[in-house]
Amino acid sequence: MISTILIFPIVACLLVMLVKKKAFATFMVNAYAIIHFICTMLMVTGIGNKSVPYFALDNTNSIFLIVLSLVFLMVAMYNTGYVRHLECSDKKLCHYSFMILVFVLSMTGTLLSTDLGISWILIEGTTLSSAYLIYFNKTKHSIEAAWKYVFICSIGIALAFVGIILLNISSGAVNSMSFAELYRHASEFDLMWLKLAFVFMLFGFGAKMGLAPAHFWLPDAHSEAPSPISALLSATLLNSAFLVIVRVFKIMELANCTNYARLMLLVMGFLSLFVTAVFVYHIKNYKRMLAYSSIENMGILAVGMALGGAAYYAVVLHLIGHSLAKASFFLTSGNILELFETKRIKSVKGLNSADSKTCWLWVASFLAICAFPTSLLFISEFIMIKTMILDKHYILCGLFVFLLTIILYGIGRVVIKMAFDELSEDKAKVVEKNINKVSILMYVPQVILLVLVFTFGVYIPQWLNEVIKLAVGTF
Questions:
Q1: Strand partners, 178
Q2: Dist. CA 320–CA 4, nearest whole Å
Q3: Tens-place pLDDT, residues 58-87
Q4: Across the strands, what pairs with 115?
Q5: Which residue from 267, 278, 336, 469 puts its CA 20 to 30 A from 384's CA?
Q6: Are 308 and 246 within 8 A, CB to CB?
């Protein structure tokens, strides 16, 4: 099964470049999404081979792979409707589909990798493949976003590489970057070099995850990329980098450096929340607003990891909830962009009059991401707050709630204003011209994602809960 999801996209890429037809390229993206989802579910339920050299499905990465697979399937469905009205050549669209395949392959490899060195290589692979996708529209702003993305993430990857070297120095006679070997000998590592290595790797992979202060690429990249790519960047790419941090954090735990690692995560987590709270009131671009929301939620994951205990369960729930809700949010923003032909917040009003389906998907996505009951994020944030209170971190708890409230209000006022303000005559004409561009395939994925987010807040299937518990047990 692992061989299938790693080899199929390579074959698909070759076929896409040989055939060079728009319909065929889109078909191959959908085929990979379906195969990826089927293989993932079969492996999680115990059917098929779960390991090949350097790649394996284990308790830690299973939930990450399920999220990636589901989000990719929904994005592929949306993308089918999205590309129908793209005014571009078959060649350009083939390159677009080619890079989507490579991008998802790189993320899949990162999640399944059993070796820190290979994870590092594949994280860099996600940068190179997604840079083209960010630049796809070839505007002044998109090329600037792509260069900033490559520049900052490359610096981050370089820092992570220095961290890997320092980890190798700390490991002494252990001449392997295999996670299993690193875990086995972690208690023997030189703590001074190990702590230094963790700082470099946290900043390096944290840049890719979108943690402040290394987050600067994220608002530009997510806002300039095509909406299906924005959904993948926010809902799956950030998770891939987070998994590497989780695995490195495990080494710190086994080496009895837990408090040091938690302090670093706590600082970067709260800094991410603070940055979002500050900037969310000065944003003029609604896709950029969603990007800052991703920085906020990555900060929440970092805070949850720092808290430990029951918060680990909340971290996994939050990862699932954020990925599904944010994918829905970004895909719905794609509908708005198609209808209004602008990303400017003040230019989008009367969404309910323009397209009621998109309007209510927009509002529901906001409710999901702001942890409105019964959103899964309500449960995850509630558990984190409870953990802070039980551990007597009252100041941290107050700051956490205060920052989340500021962010919620900042995003909420934009969402409500866009949804229910009066539609102007000029914009009504633009919407009327573009309404046929938004097909049924550009509504269904968001509906599925939102139903899952709000359902999981009430009931999590037994098999999924077992997968979550097994993941939490390895943190």
A1: 115
A2: 25
A3: 888 999 999 999 999 999 999 999 988 887
A4: 178
A5: 278
A6: no
Nearest in space to 399 (alpha carbons), one of 259, 273, 261, 310: 273
Cα distance between residue 378 and residue 367, in whole Å: 10
- pLDDT tens-digit map of 9-29: 999 999 988 988 888 999 999
- Concatenating the DSSP letter of every residue in 307-337 gives H-TTHHHHHHHHHHHHHHHHHHHHHHHHHHH
Q: Quick one: the chain helix, strand, coil %, rounded to 5?
A: 80, 0, 20
Domain locations along the chain: 2-474
Both tokens of residue 374?
Answer: 């019964």
Please enumerate in sequence order all residues whose Cβ is within 8 A of that of 405, keeping only pairs 6 or more positions apart, or say none.
none
Structure-derived torsion over alpha carbons of residues 91, 96, 99, 101, reported in degrees to the nearest 10 = -100
What pairs with residue 52 in β-bridges?
Answer: 55
Q: Look up residue 171 and give its DSSP letter.
A: T
CA distances from 25 to 36, 93, 125, 421 (A): 17, 8, 21, 40
- From residue 435, give the alpha-carbon distance in Å to each of 31, 111, 154, 422: 28, 39, 40, 18
- CA dist., res. 358 & res. 333, Å (int): 9
Exposed / middle / buried, residue 459 (Cβ in 10 Å: 0-12, 13-18, 19+): exposed
Can you tell me whether residue 88 is helix, strand or coil? Answer: coil
